[in-house]
Amino acid sequence: MTNLAILLQLNGHWDSVGRYNDFNVDGIVVSEDSNYNQLNYAIAEHLMINTSEKIIKIKYIVNERCPPMEIRNDIGVRVYMETKKENRSLGMYPLCSSIQGNNVNKIDFLFATCVIGSILPLAYVVVGSEDDAAWNSLFEQFKDAYGKKPNMCVVSDRNESILKATSIVYTRMPHYACMWHIWTNIRSKFKKDHLKLSELYFATTRSYTIDEFNERMSKIEEIDVRVKAYLYDIGYHRWSWVHATVNRTWTMTSNIAESLNAVTRDARELPILDLLEYMRTFLESWNNEKLLKVKGTFTYLGEKYNKELEDNRTLSQKMRVRASTDHIHTVLDGAKRFIVCLQNKRCCCGQFQLDELSCPHALAALRHRDESYENYCSPYYTRESLLKTYETPVDPLPDESKWNVS
């Protein structure tokens, strides 16, 4: 994967002949394969912009004879990337970015990320403002429709209204914090060693064992004791994988909701009936695309998890195994020793039980038993579950003249 360094020109103004003036300068590095959501998020994350409150308008100039080109979608990003690759110099084709308040109708999503590795919007609501009443109403209606299931949890940006609403509607349901929003706050509050802290912080959030977590937290403390105190005050269980009371599997952020907000940004300016029809057709297309993709998958697991499994299988090839019982095995990985219990689907590395996917040590034990992996992965990761997720279509709407509104 190749990256591009892109110059940002920020918060300037366009003159009558299409020149961008009086701007500030910054820069980002993104993949050449980025889509619109990824580019928009990279800019927002780097500049610490809350995209639920602000809109980023992105334009660039190809040459002085052409008016500025605005990037609105994936096609716009692809055209820009192909243009930029022709001249990779940092100063060529800067992105002129204007940050604007979001004063139009707001679409907030309550969503779920399927553990099969795909986004599934469950509900959305159009509101005038993101306040206590709006969130409470959404969660009440969601509970009426969906109910309360075992091992449910909420991952949010720690918005006070979401915290209040879920505590009222879903009492005692765990509420976790988006790791990206916490990192944005760390960057804003503590102006020190961001490069060192970034890699260490994200590794800490994904620690598989308490020992791993404590070792990394000690390193964070060495860099900046204030950051450790800040993370402690939030509560380790709210952002650390290994401390969570409900297994979050791979859902560590709330950014997918913001991605949906970005995709539907322009539609918010529509009249309410047109807005609702836009959302219906958007979800209709979304659902169908996901269904076609999974129908084109021919592995037992969904694409994302099958790749993860194959990576684990490669790592397992050189490991040696010694059986203690039918289900308990000692796995030797170089000088390190790991204990695997296949019956309980646990490994002392922590990965087997937290990922709910066979870790390299479990795969080595299964190879020793001449047994396949299918019974040692979450059923939610399978192609069959993915098909069931999208098998219910978003129904087409008949012509308005055929509506029964009595």
TrEMBL record:
Which keywords appear in this protein's UniProt record, sorted alphabetically?
Answer: Metal-binding, Zinc, Zinc-finger
The reply on keyword Metal-binding is: yes
| A GO term for molecular function | zinc ion binding
The UniProt record lists the SWIM-type domain at 338-370
Among PANTHER family, the record links this protein to: POLYPROTEIN, PUTATIVE-RELATED, PROTEIN FAR1-RELATED SEQUENCE 5-LIKE
* Name of this chain's protein: Uncharacterized protein LOC104240127
The lineage, from the top, is:
Eukaryota, Viridiplantae, Streptophyta, Embryophyta, Tracheophyta
